[in-house]
Amino acid sequence: MKRHVEARKFLGRGYELYRDIQIKKEQAASIRASLDNSTVSLNNERVSTTRNVSAMEDSIIRIIQLEEDIRKETSRLAIIQREAVEMINQLDNLTMRSMLTKYYICFKSWDTIRSELNLSRKYSSNMHTMALRQIEDILKSFDPKSATDEVKKNE
Length: 155
What we know:
Oligomer: single chain
Number of helices: 6
Number of strands: 0
Number of domains: 1
Largest sheet: none
Distance between the termini: 36 Å
Helix content: over 70%
Mean pLDDT: 86
Order of helices and strands: HHHHHH
Protein backbone atom coordinates (compact mmCIF):
# COMPACT_ATOMS: atom_id res chain seq x y z
CA MET A 1 0.00 0.00 0.00
CA LYS A 2 1.28 3.45 -0.91
CA ARG A 3 1.88 5.76 1.96
CA HIS A 4 1.08 9.44 2.03
CA VAL A 5 -1.55 9.11 -0.70
CA GLU A 6 -3.08 12.54 -0.09
CA ALA A 7 0.25 14.33 -0.45
CA ARG A 8 1.08 12.39 -3.62
CA LYS A 9 -2.34 13.19 -5.08
CA PHE A 10 -2.07 16.87 -4.25
CA LEU A 11 1.45 17.31 -5.56
CA GLY A 12 0.90 15.08 -8.58
CA ARG A 13 -2.25 16.79 -9.87
CA GLY A 14 -0.36 18.66 -12.57
CA TYR A 15 1.29 15.72 -14.27
CA GLU A 16 -1.75 14.42 -16.16
CA LEU A 17 -2.60 17.96 -17.21
CA TYR A 18 1.01 18.52 -18.33
CA ARG A 19 0.89 15.32 -20.41
CA ASP A 20 -2.43 16.36 -21.94
CA ILE A 21 -0.96 19.73 -22.91
CA GLN A 22 2.05 18.04 -24.51
CA ILE A 23 -0.20 15.69 -26.50
CA LYS A 24 -2.32 18.59 -27.75
CA LYS A 25 0.82 20.49 -28.77
CA GLU A 26 1.98 17.43 -30.73
CA GLN A 27 -1.44 17.13 -32.39
CA ALA A 28 -1.41 20.78 -33.41
CA ALA A 29 2.13 20.45 -34.76
CA SER A 30 1.14 17.36 -36.74
CA ILE A 31 -1.87 19.10 -38.27
CA ARG A 32 0.29 22.14 -39.10
CA ALA A 33 2.84 19.86 -40.77
CA SER A 34 0.12 18.24 -42.87
CA LEU A 35 -1.10 21.71 -43.89
CA ASP A 36 2.46 22.71 -44.79
CA ASN A 37 2.63 19.70 -47.09
CA SER A 38 -0.47 20.88 -48.94
CA THR A 39 0.68 22.87 -51.91
CA VAL A 40 -1.21 25.01 -54.36
CA SER A 41 -0.24 24.94 -58.01
CA LEU A 42 0.74 28.36 -59.26
CA ASN A 43 0.82 27.57 -62.99
CA ASN A 44 -2.14 27.87 -65.35
CA GLU A 45 -2.45 24.17 -66.13
CA ARG A 46 -5.64 22.64 -64.84
CA VAL A 47 -5.33 19.29 -63.19
CA SER A 48 -8.34 17.03 -62.98
CA THR A 49 -8.11 16.66 -59.21
CA THR A 50 -10.06 18.75 -56.77
CA ARG A 51 -8.63 20.30 -53.67
CA ASN A 52 -10.45 19.49 -50.49
CA VAL A 53 -10.87 23.03 -49.18
CA SER A 54 -13.23 21.79 -46.49
CA ALA A 55 -10.54 19.48 -45.08
CA MET A 56 -8.10 22.39 -44.92
CA GLU A 57 -10.66 24.55 -43.13
CA ASP A 58 -11.42 21.70 -40.72
CA SER A 59 -7.70 21.36 -39.99
CA ILE A 60 -7.34 25.07 -39.29
CA ILE A 61 -10.39 25.03 -37.01
CA ARG A 62 -8.96 22.00 -35.17
CA ILE A 63 -5.65 23.83 -34.65
CA ILE A 64 -7.49 26.84 -33.23
CA GLN A 65 -9.49 24.59 -30.88
CA LEU A 66 -6.35 22.79 -29.74
CA GLU A 67 -4.55 26.09 -29.10
CA GLU A 68 -7.48 27.36 -27.03
CA ASP A 69 -7.50 24.12 -25.01
CA ILE A 70 -3.74 24.41 -24.52
CA ARG A 71 -4.11 27.99 -23.30
CA LYS A 72 -6.82 27.06 -20.78
CA GLU A 73 -5.01 23.97 -19.54
CA THR A 74 -1.73 25.87 -19.24
CA SER A 75 -3.49 28.43 -17.03
CA ARG A 76 -4.93 25.63 -14.87
CA LEU A 77 -1.51 23.96 -14.68
CA ALA A 78 0.10 27.22 -13.57
CA ILE A 79 -2.39 27.53 -10.70
CA ILE A 80 -1.91 23.89 -9.66
CA GLN A 81 1.86 24.27 -9.78
CA ARG A 82 1.76 27.51 -7.80
CA GLU A 83 -0.23 25.75 -5.06
CA ALA A 84 2.23 22.85 -5.05
CA VAL A 85 5.20 25.23 -4.89
CA GLU A 86 3.60 27.04 -1.95
CA MET A 87 3.32 23.70 -0.15
CA ILE A 88 6.83 22.60 -1.07
CA ASN A 89 8.33 25.92 0.02
CA GLN A 90 6.99 25.34 3.52
CA LEU A 91 9.42 22.44 3.99
CA ASP A 92 12.46 23.25 6.11
CA ASN A 93 14.93 21.03 4.28
CA LEU A 94 16.46 22.37 1.04
CA THR A 95 17.07 18.87 -0.36
CA MET A 96 13.42 17.96 0.18
CA ARG A 97 12.28 21.16 -1.51
CA SER A 98 14.62 20.57 -4.44
CA MET A 99 13.56 16.96 -4.87
CA LEU A 100 9.85 17.68 -4.74
CA THR A 101 10.14 20.67 -7.04
CA LYS A 102 12.10 18.73 -9.63
CA TYR A 103 9.71 15.78 -9.50
CA TYR A 104 6.27 17.36 -9.06
CA ILE A 105 6.80 20.73 -10.76
CA CYS A 106 9.48 20.08 -13.40
CA PHE A 107 8.34 16.47 -14.01
CA LYS A 108 11.87 15.06 -13.97
CA SER A 109 12.51 11.37 -13.40
CA TRP A 110 13.87 10.14 -10.08
CA ASP A 111 17.06 8.96 -11.82
CA THR A 112 17.63 12.46 -13.20
CA ILE A 113 16.91 14.06 -9.82
CA ARG A 114 19.28 11.72 -8.00
CA SER A 115 21.97 12.46 -10.56
CA GLU A 116 21.48 16.24 -10.38
CA LEU A 117 21.45 16.29 -6.59
CA ASN A 118 24.07 13.55 -6.21
CA LEU A 119 21.81 11.39 -4.02
CA SER A 120 21.63 7.65 -3.51
CA ARG A 121 18.41 5.79 -4.25
CA LYS A 122 17.87 4.92 -0.58
CA TYR A 123 18.58 8.44 0.70
CA SER A 124 16.29 10.04 -1.90
CA SER A 125 13.54 7.55 -1.10
CA ASN A 126 13.81 8.29 2.62
CA MET A 127 13.85 12.05 2.02
CA HIS A 128 10.83 11.78 -0.28
CA THR A 129 8.90 9.84 2.36
CA MET A 130 9.76 12.39 5.05
CA ALA A 131 8.82 15.26 2.74
CA LEU A 132 5.47 13.67 1.91
CA ARG A 133 4.78 13.20 5.61
CA GLN A 134 5.39 16.92 6.16
CA ILE A 135 3.24 17.84 3.15
CA GLU A 136 0.39 15.76 4.58
CA ASP A 137 0.64 17.77 7.81
CA ILE A 138 0.57 21.01 5.81
CA LEU A 139 -2.44 19.78 3.78
CA LYS A 140 -4.47 19.43 6.96
CA SER A 141 -4.61 23.22 7.17
CA PHE A 142 -5.01 23.81 3.40
CA ASP A 143 -8.21 25.46 2.14
CA PRO A 144 -9.09 23.77 -1.18
CA LYS A 145 -12.12 26.05 -1.73
CA SER A 146 -9.95 29.11 -2.37
CA ALA A 147 -7.87 27.14 -4.88
CA THR A 148 -10.99 25.88 -6.69
CA ASP A 149 -12.43 29.41 -6.83
CA GLU A 150 -9.23 30.68 -8.47
CA VAL A 151 -9.29 27.92 -11.11
CA LYS A 152 -12.92 28.71 -11.98
CA LYS A 153 -12.16 32.43 -12.16
CA ASN A 154 -9.41 31.82 -14.75
CA GLU A 155 -11.47 29.56 -17.02
